[in-house]
């Protein structure tokens, strides 16, 4: 009997059946017409300018790739200790924001707390969405912070 189960599992795994998910894949689009970030490479003291158009959404976050860390800047229901960049209602209507290297984001992990967003060098991705924690997706742009 164990041999039969092994062969069934092997067949399902080789055809992707065992790992298939019904959840839709979140789609994040890179579109300079909707969300553009300049400069794409930041040095000490640089200001990130983010141009937004259309209905870009209500929430904004950065993802620090080296640590797999989300830093939320604008969220519809912020934790009481979060220092948001602005309210989600205001963010929904702005066409341009400037993010200084000293701006803080809220760690979206078990530590929580506000942290300087560009405190470490490496790859970052900025995400803009109607709801960051949904499968609805939104827009993104990638940037790099140079070693300070």
Helix content: 10-25%
- Please tell me the CATH architecture by its name: Sandwich
Number of strands: 11
Provide the domain count: 1
Uncertain parts? 1-19
Describe the oligomeric state of these chains in a short phrase. single chain
CATH topology: Immunoglobulin-like
What proportion strand? 35-45%
Terminal CA distance = 61 Å
Q: From the alpha carbons, calculate the radius of gyration and give it in angstroms.
A: 19 Å
| Global mean pLDDT | 84
User: What is the number of helices?
Assistant: 2
Give a structural overview.
Residues 1-19 have low confidence and may be disordered. Strand 8 (104-107) and strand 9 (114-116) form a beta hairpin. The chain has helices at 2-14, 88-93; strands spanning 28-29, 35-38, 41-42, 47-52, 59-64, 69-74, 96-100, 104-107, 114-116, 122-129, 138-145. It has two helices and eleven strands, in the order H-E-E-E-E-E-E-H-E-E-E-E-E. The protein is mainly beta and 148 residues long.
């Amino acid at each position: 009997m164990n041999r039969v189960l092994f062969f069934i599992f092997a067949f399902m795994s080789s055809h992707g059946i065992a790992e298939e998910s019904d959840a839709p894949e979140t789609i994040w689009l890179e579109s300079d017409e909707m969300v553009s970030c300049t400069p794409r490479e930041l040095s000490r003291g640089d200001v990130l300018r983010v141009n937004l158009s259309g209905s870009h959404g209500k929430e904004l976050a950065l993802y620090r790739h080296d640590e797999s860390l989300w830093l939320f800047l604008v969220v519809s229901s912020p934790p009481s200790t979060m220092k948001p960049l602005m309210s989600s209602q205001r963010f929904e209507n702005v066409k341009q924001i400037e993010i200084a290297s000293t701006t803080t984001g809220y760690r979206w992990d078990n530590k929580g707390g506000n942290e300087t967003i560009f405190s470490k060098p490496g790859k970052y991705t900025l995400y803009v969405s109607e709801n960051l924690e949904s499968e609805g997706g939104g827009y993104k742009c990638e940037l790099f912070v140079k070693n300070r």
